[in-house]
Design goal:
This protein has about 325 residues and is mainly α. Helices cover about 75% and strands about 0% of the residues. The chain has a single domain, classed as ABC transporter involved in vitamin B12 uptake, BtuC (Orthogonal Bundle). The longest helix is centred in the first third of the chain and has 31 residues.
Length: about 325
């Protein structure tokens, strides 16, 4: 059976966007190798991948939410809350397994609150998740009494220092999360439904899709990703803190956008979003190696985001079917 023309054209466009990001990465690697002798060293390339891992996991969940027509501004705050809650349990003599489960469940719970407020409470996603951002940060600060809590469990710390066949465990966690996100989006009925909801929620409802359930599920998935990221950041920093995840929401949304995800929903790929994370992390790494200020980094990132949105609008206009 032949593929639907519009779907085939969309797929080609998304794959073209992913290929374009690969070209950008190659150019960045060339630029990095030219500007710094330290760029192509094994330790630096490892650092880029590890630095991409935590925000990459958050981006997987945030990308699914955006494809489904939503937005999640609370991801960074949920990461902080999950890390503080888990390290608080540690002070009560709970082990690493309970800490990991706690972080994931706290993330899922916060995501569920977001999903229920948006789906059944009919709050605008921007408002609901903004409220969660403020509330989760406040709760995390109150639980930790505005102090950084140290991780003393060796099993948690080893997550950041262990390699499996030469690959850092944190990178493997990112790959596993990305693979699950890709499979969910590309190979399941749920994935087709969330794309339909993001493209036109009313049409999806009329087609028999439970829009509210799909939307709520997306925020739970995003929360679970935040819980996983909280465990990863606890391992990397050996701390739980209300300041963890600062500006993660902006980084995740920006990576999804330059990866080809439409802010209006209905289009995007997990592969593109993760390539977007690598682009931003590589740019940051190059700037650090060349002792360029954070201000210059932010200007460059802002320019890239604007360019990505303009390209999306241009390609979106070209790919729109002519009226009949």
């Amino acid at each position: 059976m032949a593929a639907h023309p519009a779907r085939s054209g969309l797929a080609r466009g998304l794959r073209f966007a992913d290929a374009g990001l690969v070209v950008v990465l190659v150019l960045l690697v060339v630029a990095g190798s030219v500007t710094s002798d330290a760029f192509l060293t094994g330790s630096n390339l490892r650092n880029i991948l590890v630095s991409s891992s935590v925000i990459g996991v958050v981006t997987v969940g945030a990308t699914l939410v955006i494809i489904g027509g939503g937005i999640d501004l609370s991801v960074g705050a949920i990461v902080a809350l999950a890390s503080v809650w888990a390290t608080t349990l540690q002070t009560q003599s709970y082990g690493p397994v309970v800490m990991v489960l706690c972080a994931v469940l706290v993330g899922a719970g916060a995501g569920l609150v977001n999903g229920l407020l948006i789906s059944y409470g009919r709050l605008v996603p921007f408002i609901a998740t903004l409220a969660m951002l403020v509330a989760a940060r406040g709760l995390a600060a109150r639980m930790a009494e505005n102090r950084t809590q140290l991780v003393t469990q060796d099993a948690i710390k080893r997550i950041a220092t262990t390699d499996v066949l030469g690959v850092p465990a944190l990178v493997l966690v990112l790959l596993a999360t990305g693979l699950v996100g890709w499979f969910l989006l590309e190979r399941t009925t749920f994935g087709r439904r969330l794309v339909a909801v993001g493209g036109n929620s009313e049409a999806a409802r009329l087609a028999g899709i439970d829009v509210r359930r799909v939307t709520a599920s997306l925020y739970v998935i995003s929360g679970v990703c935040c819980g996983i990221a909280a465990v990863m950041i606890m391992a990397r920093t050996t701390t739980g803190s209300s300041t963890h995840g600062s500006l993660y929401e902006l980084d995740a949304i920006a990576a999804a956008i330059i990866g080809g995800t439409l802010l209006t929903g209905g289009r995007g790929t997990i592969v593109g979003a993760l390539l977007g994370v690598l682009v931003f992390t590589t740019i940051t790494n190059i700037f650090i190696l060349n002792n360029l200020s954070t201000d210059v980094q932010n200007i460059a990132k802002g320019a890239i985001i604007v360019a990505a949105v303009l390209i999306q609008r241009r390609t979106g206009t070209r790919s729109s079917p002519a009226p009949t």
